[in-house]
Please model this.
Amino acid sequence: KERETRHRRTTITHKMSKTLPVLYRSSTLGECLKESLDELTASSSLSKEQSIAILQQFDESINEKLASEAKNKVTFRGHLHTYRYCENVWTFILEDATFKIDTETISVDKVKIVACDGSITKK
Model:
């Protein structure tokens, strides 16, 4: 279910927690890894099974490291344009958002935030 809200200010504070295992595959690092693995698989340097095993190890490793190493607190504020909750995943689209990380402030016109339930175990 998707809802749209205009002219509403929302402030949310969130501390990083463990997330769903495959969430970071769409990050720049994850995309580069997938491209490299595809090239290696296409040239027969890696089997498809090895490629899948490497991606699974990436998922596990990045989730473990972020859970243990990422301790920064981020506060953000903006106009809530759209929000959705589906299968334990929240998606927020904010407009005119401001992020505060320690002493640094970053402003953006539009941002999409995906938040997953960190207590869900891997399948």
User: Anything to note?
Assistant: The mean pLDDT is 80.
